[in-house]
Predict the 3D structure of the following.
Amino acid sequence: MLTDFFLTSNSLDRSEREARVLVVEDEFIIASAIQRSLLRLGYSIHGVCNSSADLENQFMDSLPDIILMDIELEGQDSGIDAAESLREKYDIPVVFISGLREEEVIRRVPESMPFGFVAKPFTDHQLRMALSIALYKARSEARIRSQEIQIQQLLENMNQGYCLLDDRGYIRYVNRKILRTLGTEENRLKGQDARKFVSDAEIFFRIFRSEHAGPIRLPRGICPEPFHAVIAYDRVHIPCYIIPQCIIDEQTSILQGCFLSILNLNNLEGKTSGNMIE
């Protein structure tokens, strides 16, 4: 049949064929059926275990790429509890399988941040779709995390101050340049109102004021003008030139935060236009 053709291993791309699936199912007959389905689809089976207690043993030599886990397992821990633990320790994507329909279980599923859900009984096609979407989502998140790490490393090693404010004007992130200049640690600045440290910038901070409770909406395309200010902290006063960039949700125009590029004017003394930017 044409449907069977698309369910063969040839229908999987290379990343899916190389994906190792760990099956966590405490009913032998169902576990065997799942294994047969995975093999028909062309996936590689990393292992099979019947309880959350056996999970750690499966990770002795290598980690699976994805876990197909029953919500109800033998022992005290449910599949949901096990998934939450795995997410914290190993950051492995989990797809739940279950025949349960109880509302309390369904409500708990999103808390463990699963990458998918398959209801019993399921077909090969439904299993393939759940695994394909989960693997794609996991790869996408890994790329985003890698890009975020690269950007943070770039910001950390630049000889210019960078600061990220949230939608209230509170500090979310500062790079090493600012910390070294002020002689402080990130945990002492993070979560603090930026107004406490940046003076002569009242015009800029007006964008964080809202007459009504709730999110702040800004006109599309708004870009606050660069401004001069003084950063004051623990007897340190530094004249700066600050270039702000608002972070606004494209769909709703709601203010998400603000990114500040901070240039220490003291560092410009004696420099020419050719060596102003290091």
